[in-house]
Amino acid sequence: MTRFLYDQFAKDYLTELLQPLGEVDTSRKVAAEIREIDVYFTPTTQLTSDTIELGLLGKLAATPALIEPFRNAATIAEIRSCLNKLFDIFAESKRQSKVEKKQIAESDLPKLWILSPTASEGILNGFRTNLDIENWGVGIHFFGDYFRTAIVAIHQLPVTQETLWLRILGKGRVQQQAIDELEALPPTNPLRARAIDLLLNLKTTLEVNQNIDQEDRELIMRLSPIYEQKLAESKQAGIQEGIQTGIQEGIQVGIQAGIQQGVNAERRRVIENLLRIRFGILSDDLTRIIEPLSLLPPEEFTPLLLQLSPQELIDRFL
């Protein structure tokens, strides 16, 4: 179960960071047997300041890309599966070029970036990967040119600002170090706010899951102070909003309403995240049940979200 939680987090995280740079398609289906690409990215024609701020991740996103993030070290079979998806896209592009009667250049084909928290020498040697230190530095292991594929061994990336947004997707001490650096960024940094919100969503969903390991618990503990600070900020913002409302309706009533508004907003975010983890893209009906569910305390709505089917939830709350 936790694997799916991290998969959803990685997709949401990459989507949030890459959206300003181009078109992001998560879970794109390819081939007759239906395989899904985690993130398929098509950049805009013009580079932006966001590209530079994303450092190495922005460099990966400079050309069309399949991005396949893994929570645990990618296995031989998983890497082969990623290659199969890439070849399916190559074949799809070739068919499309025939329909449109135009030649597709090799450079127009997407690249595959396999984001693995670690990568053993056996794996790297088995796929005959090579480094390109001059252009890419350490940690990026390239297959032969025509494969258009590389394994990003996140644990090998240098600890620099340029690699931060990839190291957030690492594991253990690598991820914890990246979170420390993320928290140290100026509060005005828009990428900081997006990443922290997604990490806190991950923390919340991990906490309601019973089957977590020590590494998950350590991540929850590391994120807890950030969550408490965020909650305090939300309450303070709610108080300020409540004070403004209270000028017209009574200060005490306004403060209470503001605090409750902050709590309700947090509950709606948790409920939406749980629904997306279980059911993927939300239908209009599932989106509509978020509000009535948020009126319940967490100890009541959490079991319902984990146990009931989409239709059962819709029937119960609509």
Compose a concise summary of this entry.
The protein has 318 residues and is α/β, with parallel strands linked by helices.
Uncertain runs: none
Task: Output the radius of gyration.
Answer: 22 Å
The H/E string reads HEEHHEHEHEHEEHHHHHHHHH
Classification by helices and strands: alpha/beta
Domain count, please report it. 2
Shape descriptor: globular
Instruction: Please state the oligomeric state of the protein chains shown.
Output: single chain
**Could you give the order of strands across the largest sheet?**
1-2-3-4-7-6-5
* Helix content class: 55-70%
Tally of strands: 7
Q: Percent of residues in beta strands? A: 5-15%
Biggest sheet overview: 7 strands, mixed
Distance N terminus to C terminus?
Answer: 28 Å
How confident overall, as mean pLDDT?
Answer: 84
Write a structural description.
With 318 residues, this protein is an alpha/beta fold. The mean pLDDT is 84. The chain is built from 15 helices and seven strands. Helix 1 packs antiparallel against helix 9. It folds into two domains: 2-170, no CATH class; 223-317, no CATH class. The two termini are 28 Å apart. The chain has helices spanning 2-18, 49-53, 55-60, 76-100, 121-126, 133-136, 164-167, 172-184, 190-207, 214-249, 251-279, 284-288, 290-294, 298-307, 310-317, and strands at residues 22-30, 35-43, 65-69, 111-116, 130-132, 137-142, 149-153. This is Yae1 family protein. It comes from Calothrix parietina FACHB-288.
